[in-house]
Amino acid sequence: MPATVVVGTQWGDEGKGKFTDLVAQDASMVVRYQGGHNAGHTLVVDGETFALQLIPSGILAEHVTPVIGNGVVVDPGVLIEEMDSLESRGVSTKNLRISGNSHLIFPYHQELDALYESNLGDEKIGTTKRGIGPAYADKALRIGLRVQDLLDRDGFTQKLEATMKYINSVLTQVFDHAPMDPTEIAKTYLDDYAPRIIPHIADTINLIHEELTAKKRILLEGAQATFLDLDYGTYPFVTSSNPVAGGACTGSGVGPLDIDRIIGITKAYTTRVGAGPFTAELFDDVGEHLVDVGHEYGTNTGRRRRVGWLDLVMLSYATRVNSLTELAITKLDVLDNLDVIKICVAYEFESQRYDWLPHHQSVQNQAVPIYEEFPGWKCDLSEVKNRSELPEEAENYLNFIENSLNISVDLVGVGPGRHQYFSRQQ
């Protein structure tokens, strides 16, 4: 059986973890293919909340092998803390596998992340300062260290010392910052982290293809989302990797012909964290309502998310860029008490209508939304189990999305719990 990709279609925080966990029930392996611990995803199982950062959502299913792919950047200290937290709650991490080709995050990456952001002044990007961007930069510069380097103590030490000659020159000469000690860092990574990480290091590309050859289903899980993609997002207010479906191939070792299902996840409205354009953003009481009812605060950072109406201009772009085969909508229940619900169907700038995402960023930054309005359903959807129980107004809302994008909306989330969803195909 081929692979499935689960990808966010907005600016992240769409609820990918919940549907990844759901789809993982039919998979033998869940592979995280990019990002780092800057992206959290929350799962609610039997009333218990699990906030994951690096470990794939499939960790909660005993039959699933969770894999951190080569496209991920790994802070081993954070990973070990996450493993310990799960183990303390009765969740085994013994089957976790980590690609030896994954790149490591070091303390100097986090220091540089904060310094770069501070240096931007009023033009801050909104980085989480977790060292993600600098780690990917070192990967591109070919001076990064990988997880597999933990297997060779002497080699690790030599590579780290060579890399930190460059790093310390940047710290001291560009930022007037004190140099950092490679000996101290090497000791922490080799003595404290390596013994815990080494048992999980594997040739993940081979493991994945063994599963594919055995006709088992592989699930590829991204962090962040389409509009935070380094190439396709609202640059420079993006992440440092490729969350889009194409990134699933480069970040896991799965070829494109092995993927037959690409599920796009979207909220029933739109949110984003940090700076950057947001055409359908709300600044009124409805926006505050969505923040309060939807608990729109970052899993990792606790930052309040910006909120707005659902944006079909964005979703149309995401559908094409990712070759989506279907759409899953989360948090439909957050709209339960609204009298009027809006969907952004186009943008307008200087009297010109844009049904497709403007290619020029200046236009996108200044465009205003064009809305279609829908009556609210004014009832509680949290216990809806099948399509027949859905109010006509909610069904019309979903049908409009389907018809506008020419893509089916199957899975619909109506609450945070694992059981709070229904399939419109049943």
Description:
It is a single chain. This protein is an alpha/beta fold. Helices cover about 35% and strands about 20% of the residues. It has twelve helices and 20 strands. A ten-stranded mixed β-sheet has the order 9-7-5-2-10-1-11-15-19-20, with helices on both faces. Strands 14, 16, 17 and 18 form a four-stranded mixed β-sheet that branches. A hairpin with a 2-residue loop joins strand 3 (about 40-45) and strand 4. Helix 3 (about 105-120) crosses helix 4 (about 130-140) and helix 5 (about 155-175) crosses helix 6 (about 180-195). It is globular, with a radius of gyration of 22 Å. The two termini are about 25 Å apart. The mean pLDDT is about 90.
Counting DSSP E segments of at least 2 residues, the number of strands comes to: 20
Which term fits the overall shape? globular
Rg is 22 Å
Number of helices: 12
Give the neighbour order of strands across the main sheet.
9-7-5-2-10-1-11-15-19-20
Q: Roughly what is the average pLDDT, rounded to an integer?
A: 92
Distance between the ends: 23 Å
Report helical residue fraction.
25-40%
Strand content: 15-25%
For the sheet with most strands, the description reads: 10 strands, mixed
Low-confidence stretches: none
**What structural category characterises the helix and strand content?**
alpha/beta
